Amino acid sequence: IKRELGLAVSVADFLKQPTLELLEHRLRRARQNADQKRQTGSENITLLKSGPEDKAPLFCLPGLLGQPVWINAALSVMPDLGRPILGLMMPETAVFTTLAEAAEFFASEIIGWHKSRNLTEGPILAGFSMGGFLASAVTLALERSGFPPSKAILIDPNTNFFPSLHQDNQRDEENIATRISAMRRSHVLQPVQTRLDFVAATRGFPAARLRPGEDWAILARGGIALYPVDTFHLSLTLKSNAAALAEMLAGLVTGSLEPQIILRDAWTDEDLTALGMATQATFEGDYQRAFDAFGNLSDLACNHFAVRLQRLRLLEKLRDTNTICTEAEAMIACADQ
Length: 337
Prior knowledge:
Helix content: 40-55%
Number of helices: 13
Oligomer: single chain
Low-confidence stretches: none
Order of helices and strands: HHHEEHEHEHEHEEHEHHHHH
Radius of gyration: 22 Å
Distance between the termini: 67 Å
Structural class: alpha/beta
């Protein structure tokens, strides 16, 4: 195949399901990868919208499907940003065991693009949901490489600081979505120096979401700018909202969009360590240890709304009704804050 067609197909992949249909699929993918590499210099970077290559591109991070499909609807109505828009894709050949490994890989791809074009302006990152979570990890990897992004746009991702108290621990290593979800759950989020631009969907069911985005302020040592949007999480990237998303992205990239609020509430390393211990204990189902770990937080961190809410959830699991009532009454008393 390589001699006749100039394409490479993995024997191991082919032998998993040795059919002509699979071989045709692999050849088609190999041809696409070869074309892509000629266009962008990498099999894992795809050109979504062309622009001057002497300008730092907007890099769109992949989500659970391994590709930045969240940007597709907005691309058709995206105004000219004066720079390329590139998509980063999870490589088929590499199997990452941690999200930090994936972040390091994408950081190296981004740095390679910039160095090959002698760009001095920092890259612009954007990601939706899981892609936004990944964007924070790539931001940290770029900062540690001495190549911080000029902008990091997080579109409505959740942190893993305050997990649900009924986690499904089953893992399917053959399914990329469950594998990435498992990596997200075990990933230890670290503070970043770059200012985060956070787009937050405020609608929830049956009630509005509780202060979306404020938990990311814990990590944002450069501050976090909040841009609330009156819609549901999954509605952000639908075709019906394509124009609104495109306009918002354009405003964030060009700097013409003013945030509704800027928070500077980053936590200390000590508080982040205590929070990490509580998070890990929650994932492991040890709710008493998780509750005790919250007791190591400073007064400022302990009064964070999400912390107080998570403490109530833990107390419910521990069946400590009296403390639940005491804490809930205290929260209601200062609800206007």
